[in-house]
Design brief:
Strand 5 and strand 6 form a beta hairpin. The protein is of the alpha+beta class. The protein is built from twelve helices and eight strands. Helix 1 crosses helix 11 and helix 6 packs across helix 7. The protein folds into three domains: 171 residues; 63 residues, Roll (Nuclear Transport Factor 2, Chain: A); 82 residues, Nuclear Transport Factor 2, Chain: A (Roll), CATH 3.10.450.
Length: 364
């Protein structure tokens, strides 16, 4: 059975290895997605702080004036004083992302094309292959869970946790593969499991609600149109939303889509470490009435499970310490792929001997 498990481990790694290598590299980058994106695009995303920031309404007006025919759809507030405000736009030709200086209202520019970090994000999630890539990545996450579990079983008899120095390159590579595999598996399993839950969320998210006997709150609720009434401004909607959840800070606001649409304001509690926040308030665009309040502290149990799953997967659950840990775990997948490839390459001449040849190597 051990020999069978060894070959299952080997061929699973061979089939999923390239995808896991891509996911590992892109995952390590995505842990620091926003800082990297800003560092790569300073002229577009970095500003000079100066006094107080302008109202969101003024920023929207500036964007729509600079790009005729474009309408703002969502505004993401800067998370740092020297970051630009992000305005997601929509038009007849599609969507776009515009960056604005929140202090002066100057439009800094529009992202052309996908951009490096957005491409990395899509590569990590879908290999840039749409739904087909999504399924490949999800299945590879399942393979990664199997590799971590089977790797622990194969590691157990020898329990190699150190790397021999001064031995052969083959012995060094063998020890490195096993040591990294052991230490990383403790964190790789939850990372892979949460990835599977995200990859198959069409099935797993409803299951979370069934398990917790809870129901998700409405994604949106309509405003009640009032003839001749002037809609409230985004700034007013955000003030109303924050008053509904005192103690939170604003993340951004989605503007109403049409006369029956409502404002959707994203907020975060101090303990909410994910970039997008996990609390929301829906506000009627005409009356300013609060239509729905969902706090991450009191959300339905299923919603809180979904939030927890994503926070674990992205490393946001504990802030910078867990983000750094998640980055190292992603890099361990890269190291395992490389050392595993070397082990397979070295085994080829002795492939007639089905028993794991590495055991003889370690015994010396």
């Amino acid at each position: 059975m051990r020999q069978v498990l060894f070959y299952l481990h080997l061929w699973t790694a061979a089939m999923a290895g390239i995808v896991l290598l891509i996911v590992g590299v892109t995952g390590a980058l995505l842990i620091f997605e926003e800082p990297i994106d800003h560092a790569l695009n300073p002229g577009l995303m970095v500003v000079q702080p100066r006094g107080s920031q302008l109202p969101v309404s003024a920023l929207i007006a500036g964007v729509e004036k600079a790009y005729p025919g474009v309408r703002a759809g969502m505004i993401m507030l800067p998370k740092q004083a020297n970051w630009a405000t992000t305005v997601l736009t929509r038009s007849r030709t599609g969507t776009g992302t515009v960056y604005v200086d929140p202090y002066t209202g100057r439009v800094l520019g529009k992202r052309q094309g996908r951009g490096f970090m957005p491409a990395v994000h899509q590569m990590h999630m879908r290999l840039l292959l749409g739904k087909t890539g999504d399924m490949i990545v999800s299945i590879s996450a399942l393979a990664l869970m199997f590799l971590a579990l089977s790797g622990i079983i194969l590691w157990w008899p020898l329990k190699r946790v150190t790397v021999a120095v001064g031995k052969s390159w083959r012995r060094f590579n063998f020890d490195l593969h096993h040591a990294i595999g052991f230490y990383s598996s403790l964190f790789l399993l939850p990372l892979a499991f949460t990835g599977v839950m995200i990859g198959f969320e069409d099935s797993t998210v409803p299951a979370m609600y069934r398990i917790t006997n809870s129901e998700p709150l409405a994604a949106t609720l309509p405003s009640t149109p009032v003839k001749g009434a002037t809609p409230i401004s985004p700034d007013q909607a955000m003030a109303i939303a924050q008053a509904a959840l005192p103690g939170t800070h604003l993340i951004g606001v989605m503007l109403p889509a049409g006369p029956k649409g409502s404002y959707r304001v994203a907020l975060a509690w101090p303990e909410d470490l994910t970039p997008g926040g996990r609390s929301r308030v829906l506000v009627d665009q005409f009356s300013g009435k609060v239509l729905l309040v969902e706090s991450s502290r009191t959300a339905p149990a299923g919603t809180r499970l979904v939030i927890l799953n994503r926070a674990i997967h992205t490393g946001d659950i504990g802030g910078w310490p867990t983000k750094i840990l998640a980055c190292l775990v992603c890099l361990s997948v890269v190291a395992q792929a490389f050392t595993g490839l070397v082990m397979w390459w070295k085994r080829r001449p002795s492939s007639k001997s089905p028993a794991p040849a590495e055991a003889q190597e370690v015994a010396t």
